[in-house]
Specification:
476 residues, alpha/beta, 18 helices, 9 strands, 11% strand, globular
Length: 476
């Protein structure tokens, strides 16, 4: 019996000799796969789209040429504007209302009088045309952009391509004061190091001189894809990104979509939609033991009292958002027909989003930060292109969905990131909260002054912070 068992025992040990290594290899392989998948960078699928009128042509190849573009005006356009300005009707403001009820109509009369009698649109068109403008067709619609290269590059200094994206109710014009600081830093006492940029500023489709989408569903992810295609068409393989407002979300989506193309991402407004128990604990403990939840004293100063600064003030400033995220075309009808209504709607944001205390001023504090020529030029970009409705639709396309279910909600940002936190921004995002999304924050700056329209209001401060960030990234 013992002799009969020997062959079985031998057979069993032979099976063991094969199975054990196979099992070890299998478990080991699964472990390696798990470890690698943990560190694998998740990305948004790039996909494709068609936003032109009608069905996408199946056989015809899209015209990929880059065409010079020039902004023009006419006597007819100016006469029509003047006629509408002269026929405006006003509702007297409540006594002592300042900007608490919106744009004060007494001050609006002064703005409109300047617009009608002193503002020179032909002269401002020349100002707008001082930088090279172009258009190119991507996914069925014409994309407008300006592309400014440095006039002189010192020997040994690399030129960094930088895509800067505006938001609402701004435009590419917001960047006109910061462009020379970035392309010719030595002329503006910003020659601390070796950073020089060539700057590309596109208009978001549906804004200004970029054609509006003809199909539903055009969101920030579609915009991100189009802007990647634009940079690729311009011959760039790697580039830096900068954005605020919608520009922040678009450039963030670009970093999530093609991280290998993004050398660095610089933001002056941060979208962090993720909530949950950790955030709740951070908010509750932050006011008392901020160090325990990673908040600084400056975070506490800017974030608390939490209900006032993050709920009450945000609700007060976001009424427009609820309209534009639900029925943009209804409100847009009146704004597209009345230049005075359009100016009041847009310029009110340039008041309280620049400084919350401007709410208490009869003139909204507008001329303490900007000139009327600057403000009205931005309004005119919306007026002459009839783009206010299509710009407002961008809110419906992005906000009507559950933010937790969108493709970008499940994807972090792994590219080097710089954040400039301006004190008068609508909402403050501490570094500890930003890290939930942005995994590789290289610089985080508490800016000394400034609000939502950073490039327009504080171009030198923003330029310095962009340069500091890029310099650090280039040294990595």
């Amino acid at each position: 019996q013992t002799i009969l068992c020997l062959p079985r025992s031998f057979e069993y040990s032979q099976k063991n000799a094969v199975l054990v290594p196979v099992a070890v290899l299998g478990v080991g392989g699964m472990l390696v796969y798990w470890l690698r998948s943990r560190h694998k960078i998740k990305t948004i699928e790039m996909g494709d789209g068609w936003w032109g009128s009608g069905e996408r042509p199946l056989k015809r190849k899209e015209d990929e040429s880059i065409r010079p573009f020039k902004i023009e005006t006419s006597d007819k356009e100016i006469e029509d504007l003047h006629c509408r300005l002269e026929q405006a009707r006003y509702t007297p403001p409540l006594e002592g209302a300042a900007f608490h009820y919106g744009f004060n109509s007494s001050y609006l009369r002064k703005v409109v009088a300047y617009w009608r009698n002193q503002f020179d649109w032909r002269k401002q068109v020349e100002v707008l045309n001082k930088y090279p403008h172009f258009q190119t067709t991507i996914e069925g619609i014409d994309i407008h952009f300006i592309h400014v290269k440095p006039s002189y590059v010192p020997h040994g200094r690399a030129v960094q391509p930088l895509l800067m994206v505006h938001g609402w109710p701004g435009s590419f014009y917001e960047f006109y004061k910061i462009i020379p600081l970035l392309t010719e830093p030595a002329k503006h006492d910003l020659n601390e190091g070796d950073v020089v940029f060539e700057v590309i500023c596109p208009s978001i489709p549906g804004y200004g001189f970029s054609e509006a989408p003809h199909q539903k569903g055009f969101d920030t992810i579609a915009t991100a894809r189009i802007f990647h295609k634009l940079m690729n068409r311009l011959g760039f393989k790697e580039y830096y990104l900068q954005g605020g407002d919608w520009g922040s979300r678009i450039t963030t989506n670009m970093a999530q979509m093609l991280p290998q193309s993004v050398k660095g991402l610089h933001l002056n407004f941060v979208f962090v939609s993720r909530q949950g128990l950790r955030r709740m604990i951070s908010v509750m403990l932050g006011a008392y033991v901020p160090w325990l939840v990673g908040l600084t004293r400056e975070d506490v100063r800017r974030t608390y009292p939490f209900i006032q600064k993050n709920i009450y003030e945000l609700l007060r400033e976001s009424g427009y958002l609820h309209i534009q995220a639900t029925k943009p075309d209804t409100a847009g009808c009146g704004l597209n027909d009345s230049p005075v209504g359009l100016a009041a709607y847009i310029l009110e944001k340039f008041s309280t989003w620049t400084d919350k205390s401007f709410l208490h001023k009869d003139d909204g504090g507008l001329e303490s930060k900007y000139s009327l020529d600057e403000l009205l030029t931005n309004v005119m970009i919306y007026w002459v292109t009839s783009s206010i409705v299509s710009s407002m639709r961008f809110y419906k396309e992005n906000i009507s969905k559950d933010p937790g279910l969108t493709a970008d909600a499940r994807v972090g940002v792994d590219v080097p990131t710089g954040i400039a936190a301006f004190p008068q921004e609508l909402v403050h995002t501490p570094r500890a909260w930003a890290k939930e999304i942005f995994k590789n924050i290289i610089t985080y700056s508490y800016m000394p002054r400034g609000g939502h329209f950073a490039a327009f209001e504080e171009p030198k401060l923003l330029a310095q912070d962009i340069m500091r960030f890029v310099r650090k990234v280039e040294q990595l």
